[in-house]
Design goal:
- It is a single chain.
- By secondary structure, the chain is an all-alpha fold.
- Helices cover about 65% and strands about 0% of the residues.
- Helix 7 runs antiparallel to helix 13.
- The radius of gyration is 29 Å and the shape is globular.
Length: about 425
Amino acid sequence: MKIGRPFADDARSCSRSIGSRRLLWLPERASEVSGHIWRSFVRQGYPVTVRERTAIMVNNFFLHVHPPRVHPHSLRPTYTLGLGLITALLYAILAVTGLLLMLYYVPATAEAYGKMQDLIFVVAFGRLVRNLHRWAAEAMVVAAFLHMCRVFYTAAYKPPREFNWVVGVALLLLTLALSFTGYLLPWDQLSFWAITVGTGIVSYFPLLGDGIRFVLLGGDTVGGEALLRFYVLHVGILPAATTVLIAYHFWRIRKDGGLARPAQAGNNHAATVLSFPRVAAIELLLLLALLVFLVPVSHVFDAPLAQIANPEHPPNPAKAPWYFVGLQELVSYSAFWGGIIVPGLVLLGLLLLPYLDRRPHGIGEWAFRQRRWAWILWTAFVLVTAVLTLVGAQFRGPNWNFYWPWEGWPGPG
């Protein structure tokens, strides 16, 4: 049977109509599928309303650490200087780069130094990752200490935040321990003798000093047992403890009513603002800023790597890592006072500080006039620490004699 032309035109028109509807249906179907995939991760679309922006802070795993609402005073960059967030982000960078380095590193004295050389000259991007890990670790020590200074100057350790200050002190000690244990892993002259000096300072502690040093080293000298133990501490035990304490630190901030703020800032619900998207955007921008700074620095400046460790050839002088060289300077004057009494009193003072200073003055603000003597004493402590570190690192030459850096001493080797 022959189909007439009018009927054929109608068939073609119907086909084009069905095809056009199919083309219109495809984007709608794709949008529906992508919506299902998005909701499988976040359980809701992009939050627009106040209710949705509040709910995403509760429903999202990564954002749940934040409260749904925050006080605008906590977001002022001139108040916090972003130091707590910078420290946490540096720890995240260290975790990622550390995992990448673990894929190649071998904690054995026969292979460790060779693996460092391979990372620098053979492995693709190995040099960049190693440098980024090292400089982020150095920056984290500085950022954690400066964060503690900011908390002190703004009296953010006072009630009801006393115990969170103690947790912060523990996190600072863990930060130092993480950097110290990682210092040995390159297994070069610099790291070998720095750890030898650092663990030697530990032995000055009364009663337990020699035992702690023996447990750390697995013997009386730095060797293969020490390298393995430092590696396990650096990649397993200490990161686990640090992660738990960081999570607890953040949780306590929420439970203690957020960051400290002055009474005149207001504490009612109407004074707060929604955390999303402002807080998330600040954190992302700060992470990008850190990477923009650290990646070029890591590309230009190499992490130190001296000759392979040689127990028979000690440098003169052998120095502890820079963050402990101030303590080494104190020990050079008196092992008892510099290695036991002074650091013990400093640590005890830091732990007892929030329970001794309970006057409700200057909380949540840079209030020099209200806390003049507290500011003076803390600033003196910071300056003494900086001077001791500078003298030990730059003004001590062979046999720990004082010298001027411009005299041309080549440094330890």
